[in-house]
Amino acid sequence: MKYVKIDFEDECQYESLKETKKRHGLTWKGMLLHAQRELDSGPTTE
């Protein structure tokens, strides 16, 4: 199993992400996978 470690600049940033995760009923893994799908489905800026 692979692990991801993220260091947050401040507690507010972490708490904001945690609340979003909870509001949408996601896990941390689910948040990352959702973000990846959104980023990959958007228009390219190249």
Report on this model:
The chain is mainly alpha-helical. It has a domain of 29 residues. 59% of the residues lie in helices and 0% in strands. It is built from two helices and no strands. It is extended, with a radius of gyration of 13 Å. The model has no long low-confidence stretch (mean pLDDT 92).
Q: Nutshell version of this structure?
A:
This protein has 46 residues and is mainly alpha-helical. Helix content is 59%, strand content 0%.
Features:
single chain, 46 residues, mainly alpha
Low-confidence stretches: none
Q: Classify the beta-strand content into a percent band.
A: under 5%
The rounded Rg comes to 13 Å
Q: Helix count, per DSSP?
A: 2
Q: What is the 3D form? A: extended
Strand pairing plus helix content: what structural class?
Answer: mainly alpha
Order of helices and strands: HH
Tell me the number of strands: 0
Biggest sheet overview? none
Average of the residue pLDDT scores: 92
**Percent in helix:** 55-70%
Distance between the termini: 34 Å
